[in-house]
Amino acid sequence: MILTLIIAFLSLIALMIIHEFGHFVIAKKFGVKVEEFGIGYPPRLFGKQFGDTFYSVNMVPLGAFVKIYGEEGGVDDLKSFAKLAMYKRMLIVLGGVMAFWLASMIIFSVVFLIGARVPVGDQDVAGISNTSVQIVAVQKGSPAQVAGLKVGDVISSLQNQNQNLTVNKISDFQKFIESNKGKSLIITAHRKGKEVFLSLTPRLEYPDTEGPTGVVLERVANVIVKSRFYEAPVKGVAYTGQVTWQALEGIYGVASNLFSGKGAPSGAELAGPVGIIIFLARAVDYGPGFFLYFIGSISVLIAIFNLFPIPALDGGKLLFLIIEWARKKPVSVKVEQSLTIIFFILLITMSIFVTIKFDIPRVMEFWKGGF
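User: That's the sequence. What structure does it adopt?
Assistant: Structure tokens below.
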């Protein structure tokens, strides 16, 4: 559990570093002085100067940052951000979100190279085959743990004295268990390519959140099949576009519902940074294919979010540049900084609210093994 959380956390931090590296590369390309490229946030732990840039590692491991010379304006220097042509400044600002999309293309290319089994639910979906029911969590002290079931096991059949049931859906498992509470059953499961047979007795009394066996199940399928090495990059790029379009449709749907007074669509969930880490940690249980699939999807979503015209995001900085282009003079440095600070505080406040209300319960469930 600790290892999966560490993997999830480092993966999210890696995306943040890639984002800042996008700004960094384009700024360097245009000859702008980058004063510092930092991993984590101050206070500084250590660092070293190379050329015009100081590279640092900092104490607060919540992302990365790049300090571009003259980005706040008021600097009359050929190496400053403020002296660049407008389109070059816009490209530097957009460098971060472009890095997210590029990362998604590479990640999805790898996914198409290795394939990915993805959760699909119990519904029958056209074009999806080779489904299986997989264990994603086992409650401590539950009959499932006593029987020896483990996270990652694929349930293939359940057997009592009179019946041998092939498990194709979660509902198959649930109905059979419900009708056989208190009886000794044989579970056939696949674990790392081997078939295992385990004895399980569903309990008659149990906590409401655990069920008779104490397992959390997910139905998965080969949604992304392995491709030839020369096809994978093409499919990776195309799939990035597909995920982007689906994300935009989802955002439009949520916005339409909210503005029409219908509220958030059913099934919509809010998640902050902590929630994303929990989702990533859960994705580890489905194997490297789905884990990378999930990271690629998150990269697309963060890219789109960063384009929102909100001060403190890349989209806000781009908005200020568009206003400057339209007015033929820059927005006051004081006004821009004040608005950025205000919206930064609002975003942090919203993030804290989402973390407390939605993410902390997810952490508790994950820690108990029932997420």
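Residues 231 and 256 are 37 Å apart (CA to CA).
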